[in-house]
Amino acid sequence: xxxxxxxxxxxxxxxxxxxxxxxxxxxxxxxxxxxxxxxxxxxxxxxxxxxxxxxxxxxxxxxxxxxxxxxxxxxxxxxxxxxxxxxxxxxxxxxxxxxxxxxxxxxxxxxxxxxxxxxxxxxxxxxxxxxxxxxxxxxxxxxxxxxxxxxxxxxxxxxxxxxxxxxxxxxxxxxxxxxxxxxxxxxxxxxxxxxxxxxxxxxxxxxxxxxxxxxxxxxxxxxxxxxxxxxxxxxxxxxxxxxxxxxxxxxxxxxxxxxxxxxxxxxxxxxxxxxxxxxxxxxxxxxxxxxxxxxxxxxxxxxxxxxxxxxxxxxxxxxxxxxxxxxxxxxxxxxxxxxxxxxxxxxxxxxxxxxxxxxxxxxxxxxxxxxxxxxxxxxxxxxx
Amino acid sequence: xxxxxxxxxxxxxxxxxxxxxxxxxxxxxxxxxxxxxxxxxxxxxxxxxxxxxxxxxxxxxxxxxxxxxxxxxxxxxxxxxxxxxxxxxxxxxxxxxxxxxxxxxxxxxxxxxxxxxxxxxxxxxxxxxxxxxxxxxxxxxxxxxxxxxxxxxxxxxxxxxxxxxxxxxxxxxxxxxxxxxxxxxxxxxxxxxxxxxxxxxxxxxxxxxxxxxxxxxxxxxxxxxxxxxxxxxxxx
Amino acid sequence: xxxxxxxxxxxxxxxxxxxxxxxxxxxxxxxxxxxxxxxxxxxxxxxxxxxxxxxxxxxxxxxxxxxxxxxxxxxxxxxxxxxxxxxxxxxxxxxxxxxxxxxxxxxxxxxxxxxxxxxxxxxxxxxxxxxxxxxxxxxxxxxxxxxxxxxxxxxxxxxxxxxxxxxxxxxxxxxxxxxxxxxxxxxxxxxxxxxxxxxxxxxxxxxxxxxxxxxxxxxxxxxxxxxxxxxxxxxxxxxxxxxxxxxxxxxxxxxxxxxxxxxxxxxxxxxxxxxxxxxxxxxxxxxxxxxx
Amino acid sequence: xxxxxxxxxxxxxxxxxxxxxxxxxxxxxxxxxxxxxxxxxxxxxxxxxxxxxxxxxxxxxxxxxxxxxxxxxxxxxxxxxxxxxxxxxxxxxxxxxxxxxxxxxxxxxxxxxxxxxxxxxxxxxxxxxxxxxxxxxxxxxxxxxxxxxxxxxxxxxxxxxxxxxxxxxxxxxxxxxxxxxxxxxxxxxxxxxxxxxxxxxxxxxxxxxxxxxxxxxxxxxxxxxxxxxxxxxxxxxxxxxxxxxxxxxxxxxxxx
Amino acid sequence: xxxxxxxxxxxxxxxxxxxxxxxxxxxxxxxxxxxxxxxxxxxxxxxxxxxxxxxxxxxxxxxxxxxxxxxxxxxxxxxxxxxxxxxxxxxxxxxxxxxxxxxxxxxxxxxxxxxxxxxxxxxxxxxxxxxxxxxxxxxxxxxxxxxxxxxxxxxxxxxxxxxxxxxxxxxxxxxxxxxxxxxxxxxxxxxxxxxxxxxxxxxxxxxxxxxxxxxxxxxxxxxxxxxxxxxxxxxxxxxxxxxxxxxxxxxxxxxxxxxxxxxxxxxxxxxxxxxxxxxxxxxxxxxxxxxxxxxxxxxxxxxxxxxxxxxxxxxxxxxxxxxxxxxxxxxxxxxxxxxxxxxxxxxxxxxxxxxxxxxxxxxx
Lengths: 384, 236, 292, 256, 364
Ligand SMILES: Nc1ncnc2c1ncn2[C@@H]1O[C@H](COP(=O)(O)OP(=O)(O)OP(=O)(O)O)[C@@H](O)[C@H]1O
Ligand SMILES: Nc1ncnc2c1ncn2[C@@H]1O[C@H](COP(=O)(O)OP(=O)(O)OP(=O)(O)O)[C@@H](O)[C@H]1O
Ligand SMILES: [Mg+2]
Ligand SMILES: [Mg+2]
Prior knowledge:
The complex is a heteropentamer.
Chain A: E1 12-19, H1 29-44, E2 52-59, H2 64-77, E3 82-84, H3 89-102, E4 106-107, H4 132-146, E5 152-157, H5 160-173, H6 177-180, E6 181-187, H7 195-203, E7 208-212, H8 215-227, E8 233-236, H9 243-250, H10 252-255, E9 259-262, H11 276-288, H12 297-316, H13 322-329, E10 358-365, E11 368-377
Parallel strand pairs in A: 1-2, 1-3, 3-4, 5-6, 5-7, 7-8, 8-9
Antiparallel strand pairs in A: 9-10, 10-11
Chain B: E1 4-13, E2 16-26, E3 31-36, H1 42-49, E4 54-61, E5 64-65, H2 71-78, E6 80-83, H3 95-102, H4 111-121, H5 123-127, H6 138-150, E7 156-160, H7 168-185, E8 188-192, H8 196-202, E9 205-210, E10 213-219, H9 220-225, H10 227-234
Parallel strand pairs in B: 3-8, 3-9, 6-7, 7-8
Antiparallel strand pairs in B: 1-2, 1-4, 4-5, 9-10
Helix pairs in contact in B: 3-6
Chain E: H1 12-15, E1 23-24, E2 27-28, H2 29-50, H3 53-79, H4 86-104, H5 108-130, H6 135-154, H7 159-162, E3 168-169, H8 177-187, H9 193-216, H10 219-229, H11 231-236, H12 241-267, E4 269-270, H13 277-290, H14 295-317, H15 330-344, H16 348-363
Antiparallel strand pairs in E: 1-2, 3-4
The structure holds adenosine-5'-triphosphate (2 copies) and magnesium ion (2 copies).
């Protein structure tokens, strides 16, 4: 008992979280909310290891300085056991050193940057979702296999997220990257439209369109291609492949044949309607997060990652020291978090801080994604 | 009953009391002059009538107490035209647009005619009709302020040093015009003026203000005869 | 087709977006002598209202009815904001007003996310998205240009042919003198806010089919709207529209032929500032001379 | 013969189609008061603005103490020795009377950003001297009671006097006064007249006075120049100008 | 009219500070102000002896924001030039410090002065074209600057210096050994890094505050205000308005920039996302809410911008029982707070304080 982390009592585990509830990235707030709602469910069922989860989720407005303040407050004033699912690359970067110096777990951060899986230098930090680079690699392999002479045009958001995706593709293409990539156009989140960039990409003679955009811009890009009567092989990053919130909004007819990758079930995909995990998710949404948007795949994400944490905590049992929590998070073996695609599991070890590294490709057909091919292992992060 | 009746008027700038509770009348169809030294409260009196400063007491215009009413309501209901201290030019728009704004509350068809009337009185303004009003010379802006007031076809005119900055020949002309308008159209006027000779000449009554109070009042010719007034205001 | 022409046309199309918003900026500038930084968010919120009126989950009204209702609601809302929020602080310094603009910005942004969530919404267009002329421009964008021009004509006529336009400017620039000539300054301010909100709502409804409706839809767009209005001349509706188109085209040319997309905004802005250094009142703005 | 401190030569100023000054020439003898009169819009203030370099003449030259001032930037004019007041008050409205006057003495002091931020000792001495000389001026013009009052709320006539104090603070050799008598009654006018004469006699300043109050101009001026439509129409002693039929026609009217 | 022949015979009103006449609770105002200043200074010194960790870190942040807001006050409040772009100078300061530490191995404490110089130059240069832009046009130009800043920081061409989108992780600013030694000998404890960061920040902040104080109450300060009140007549009084305005821009940028340097040192990390338009807005809010032409106001402003989001957060969370997901309304509540603040103190905290002092002194 004495070894327990701060914030852990016989009755309670205090967990901190930062999330943008206000500001430009508030769209991600549904992650914080759904994680909270998920803990509510566990709590009402008796908690984890007999302890209630006290999930303190605070707003950082996606502003790194504010993340520092909020995280320090959580750790030093609220005395949370650890921070879980803090959202954003720049925000988590701002407290990266602090958390590792303080030796407080920065668990399952909600970002796909590659740098979170670095146990040698940052033993207290771990990501969760497959990193962006690995997804890029998956597309690169697909293009190399099916269209070895493709001319690729890239549209990417000018930040870590966008650049990681571009690196992934480049890595995957290897030597051929130079000759195959014919156009790179970036945009800022504050740009009103990406029209001009798409006109440029189209004009570069590209026949393959690598679309690294967040939902609003992804929908714009799909619509714009249609307006331009341009029909390249369209590789849409998983960040924006939600049927409910992107593809249906842009119009199914405009996106036919697009390729994307997934590791989570899309709750709007009718294919899962009868799946047990979907049903459990659905029932939970109805009861614990009734005003949440079921078309919003972040809710499925929150649900899944919350289960992963609970699994790690259960493994830790009554030894809820920070060291052991971290050790157990790094000791997940073939754990099937709900709502992962069939065949995908969570795996970590003392040297592998990338919990999920698998993808499956899919193609838009009619009003849904049609998955094809095997589950692909995209692990690159630890190597690069 | 007088057209404009002031009773126990006090006025305030924030905490400072600038007028200390005096009475003043303006009879229908008459011109009344208000004299006073620098800072005596002449401007404040005119502003109080238009609801531009915080005031207490009563100011009755055409039988209605206007204390507490908004400036725009007082001006529009009682057709009061105010030639303010500092002229109040709309500096960004043209001379003619300033005149048009003067007639803003009017709905009749005569407005066009009245431009010509103002231009007739002040030919200089016609030459400058499309010029940005803020670039007019000081005297030209003063003419504009008077012209703008006339555009309302007012029942009452409050004139705060209307000859300010005008050339002698124009000042003379201005007072002729005011006298004429008063006679022909029966417009009542309250005139604050340092050019006391001219003001008293066309006025029936006069008031002398001293530090927020009425120091003397009576028919204009009586006031003119007063030793002190002669020395301080008339210079002979 | 030639890349130059294509980028130009595409610039014109985004220019139409900026021009719409620039018109709203000019409108509010005439009414309050300042920018309203919450203008974009107000337009965004109006658009959500229209969306709610149209959406099946909402009231399911047909487009044009929703369009008109939204304009009316926005007008009332804009006027109400002036009366409720700004009238009590009319004596406060301008900078305090700017803080209130910022407050409104934050409030509308937050409220939209709270009420309508953050997933992009599709906003209907009566013109459809069919590609026109070789897939260079869509029907909606063409329609948008037309509506913008109609709006321009209406606003121009308002300021040119009604005394209210002049009175509004007078009330904004010199409230005390305006009162002295019988202008109801409070009414003018409310009217100006109402009209600006109404124009903004039209802008929002035209923009949303292209950018999709999200609470952050106007975040970046507003800067371009300001830029368009300023380049054109803040007092001129025609200038605002021309300015909006210019900004759209300029931005595209920069991004394509000169500096690449990473710096296109930066360079376009620098260019705009250079234009202002040469022509301080904007292209069609009235030069206001100050003298002593 | 006294030396000419100011020479205005063929100055022309155009605003678009309007010719505000059309080749005006005249000279000012040192240590005298020169009255400048003319109808509204004749170009008097415009000439002042040229003298303080706020406007650039399209043609002509202005020489102060024999040297052209057209090459000097506006902020050098005070240093050269020309001070002015403004027709439509241009005070620093949020500052007190004392502060306004101290700004008037800006060109007579020299502390800069660095020395002020670091509060160097010599800066303190300069500041003290500045305060004292400004205070003297304020006293001189009878503004002592309002020295610490913010100028914005002062009566018009008082503000005019603050303007005068501010202009005097830089100890100019040539003082330009644009309608200083506005809003003054007869008593106050006489007082102003004697102040201007004192300025000339005690401080040795040359004064260029624009004023529509003929009583004042004619009683204190050593010389009067009249302009109309930007052109000089008369020049001479007050009597001469006053009786010039052209001046009577264009400006004075029959009342005088 | 009084004659003034006797040299040194200074009028009485000069020696009489008008504020002396205002008695608050029996004490003349200037004395009260001075005491207030000393109390404040004492508090700044005492704080690190009492607090540590997050608490002292927060106090340091308040001082840091105070400096940033002060920079804006000098420009907007005292000189009348409006800026929505001060996040840019904040960034220049922060990145100057970071690059010097990261690329050149300069110790953190030695970066402040060069960073200040860089910011001054940057501000001065930006101030040159700004001379020709008035009011809203300047607002647009600075707005544009704020929007462009993060993009420029990310620009590939300079990413090797700025760290691009990744930003820069900085070394911990350890206190010099001798200070450690002194503290150890007095308290018997090691000086914590948070306390040291605070002390360093406070030192810089106090020096700069004093500089601003001196500047404002001097010939320079009067010239700046004169330009704000009436640029044309300021020029006629012999003030070189262009130089003063550009220099005001430079000094203002320097203050905000030094705040940026301190920010980098304090957080040991910086990235383009920390320098968005939102940051510029923050400074503006702090400035206006504190009182835009008041130095004391900047202190309140610094506190306000740091704490008000927390308060809004708290208020939102307290609605938990009435509304679902009230955190989504944080922005709404923040806005309401701002409006409320403007209602209560339309002239900022400094203006309110003035009114209160007046009330108390006249009631007696
Ligand atoms: N805005 C203001 N704030 C504070 N006090 C003011 C303000 N305006 C006027 N006062 C004060 O009110 C008093 C009366 O001023 P008012 O302007 O009415 O005088 P006046 O007779 O018109 O003088 P003048 O001949 O100079 O125009 C003066 O003592 C003046 O200081
Ligand atoms: N910036 C400008 N643009 C256009 N016209 C101008 C400008 N400045 C002055 N004017 C015109 O030039 C003429 C001269 O103006 P100025 O102010 O010099 O006259 P003034 O002699 O001082 O008259 P007053 O006695 O009325 O003050 C006026 O008719 C005025 O309208
Ligand atoms: Mg007066
Ligand atoms: Mg003049």
